[in-house]
Amino acid sequence: MTKNRKKLFLLLILISMLLILTACNGGSSDSISSHTLTVQVDYNQSSPLMIELYDEEEMVANEEGDSAQFEVKNGTYTLKVYNDSTAKSKSVVINGSDHTVAVSFLDPTIPEDDWEPGAGWNLDWSDEFNDGDFDTNIWTRQRLMTPFNNELESYTGERSTAYEENGYMVLKATYDGGAYDQQGNYTSARVISNPGGQDGDSGADGKTFKYGKIAARIKLPGGKGIWPAFWMLGDNISETGGSTSWPQCGEIDILESGAKGDPNYGQGTVHGTVHRDPGTESNTAGYNEPVPAGSYTLADGELFKDDFHVFAIEWDQEEIIWKLDGIEFGRKDISSDIENEFHKNFYVLFNIAVGGHFTDTPDETTGFPQYMYIDWIRHYTK
N or C, fewer C-beta in 10 Å, the chain? Predict the structure, then answer.
């Protein structure tokens, strides 16, 4: 065989090997190119924090601190975040693009609680969220993929959106990518205490209230386009298995925050409102008209996301009174015959809405994930 033929033969072998390797890699450079995995940890403890990345059983990268960036190829990895007392792990899939992972790793120490209900109020019921077990006999993660009010989130009902951790019930809202003003690009939680759960037929006991003091100690989320709420609906509403439409069922908003037009995107202002049967009093248009009871803005530019506050109503046959940390900020008379929807059983809701007619649209300044921390909810009677 001549030298030229030998060279040609070797060249053909080399080309064949390259073709085989390309076929094994699916004919795409994505599987061998690198992508950036960004890890962001919500962390407020003093001990050092470690972030480690594993490919199967082998650690391939690690960083100390509350954020890290790793260059990785396509595949499934395990992310481990830990300090000297707690560890968390989660699976991460890289598939042709950069990826960001957020991890909540908050100090389990709950700030001091010195709130008192006031003279004459006796504790009737509470959920203190101290056992680490999300009580599905009381609370339901409501599934509502296309919410009302032009909101942008989807309430998927997944366990990851609402859970108990470190003495709180935690609600979580995430931005899933895409246009900021597109419905469905956010995942969030809406938790209800409706007897029978989602459709009224789950067998869950739930919890309803009629009169008394209903109070909850909450640290709210906050940012442009974030609309958290602690509120109540008449348990006869058709949405969850009843026979009465909204707003004829009645609605009591113990707190709403994030209102469009309020200072700091509404993060330091709370509103109390009722919604009732249309066509009553001056509302003859035949559709819902909210009846504001009052609002309260924190002093010196403080924001509700920076600390816990107690949001409460005092409700009897004559009126509903709204209070923030024991300070009255709203009052609504319900003694007339046209307010009869407020003399029936109501269930509680906690949720984080994103966007919608009440608030702004999120943008790049809105941090995600967003969390609502509920320390406790209590019902008092006299």
Answer: N
